[in-house]
Amino acid sequence: MTSASVPVPDRRLVDVGVxxxxxxxxxxxxxxxxxxxxxxxxxxxxxxxLGEHLSVxxxxxxxxxxxxxxEHRWLRELAPQVPLPIPTPLALGSPGAGFxxxxxxxxWIPGEPAGLSSIDDLTExxxxxxxxxxxxxxxxPAGGPAPGLHNWFRGGPLQVYDAQTRRAIDVLDGLVPRxxxxxxxxxxxxxxxxxxxxxxxxxxxxxxLLVREGRLAAVIDFGTCGVGDPACDVVIAWTLLSGPSRAAxxxxxxxxxxxxxxxxxxxxxxALIVYAGALDNDxxxxxxxxxxxDEILTE
Length: 299
What we know:
Blueprint: H1 16-26, E1 35-37, E2 45-50, E3 54-59, H2 62-65, H3 68-78, E4 89-93, E5 103-107, E6 112-113, H4 122-137, H5 162-171, H6 178-190, E7 198-200, E8 209-212, E9 215-219, E10 226-228, H7 236-239, H8 243-253, H9 257-278, H10 283-298
Antiparallel strand pairs: 1-2, 2-3, 3-5, 4-5, 6-8, 7-10, 8-9
């Protein structure tokens, strides 16, 4: 599988009215609850509050819908094996009311997205997150989903995105140090993985880490989870952490050099393609992503 064969999702967004009709038609016990969008919805899924204690999660494209039944199958089994709350699926919705995919009702987990302004002690946060990921890696992997289109090949070989990464390097020629970027990428491609497949989250990003009272409180959005190489879960080391917090994260995670190098590659791939895509129309994203690239290259 090469990046050229990975489809570009055709995202379709819905409004509150569609959510109300879906809930009323399939789960009448919740039909009287108010529906409202969340302040910060995701890319793969739209999330709406349903009353005070529930949420509705709807995939935005057919590719993302492949994760819905996976989450219903596995999240209840993973929950007791990890030290922080994760989403609990309560009901599986079917296509209807003009919406073409399966969808979910979850318990609502309160908290705000992780960020430098919401975290009291970044090193403590890093150690707590590493503890969660270690526990996740020790969860029973038997029968778990292998990397594939359902999770955009997280947990598989970085070679899937080699062509895409090199195209981004071409686009960014003169904006990033080409030789250094290429060297980091090729080192990641060469880094071996000979371990046994383990559970990974697949998208350990600030929006999927919830903070309450300054501390890590929950991990959400398991749409890209699977069983394979856990290197993709190291990306947060460069997108949020730095200096002492990054070192503490690596030590607590007990990550070998090969996994760290592949994780650095996953971080670089995503940063390069986002930076290249944001250059012409999203200067804020471009600037933030350039910061991440600098963190990756200066380690």
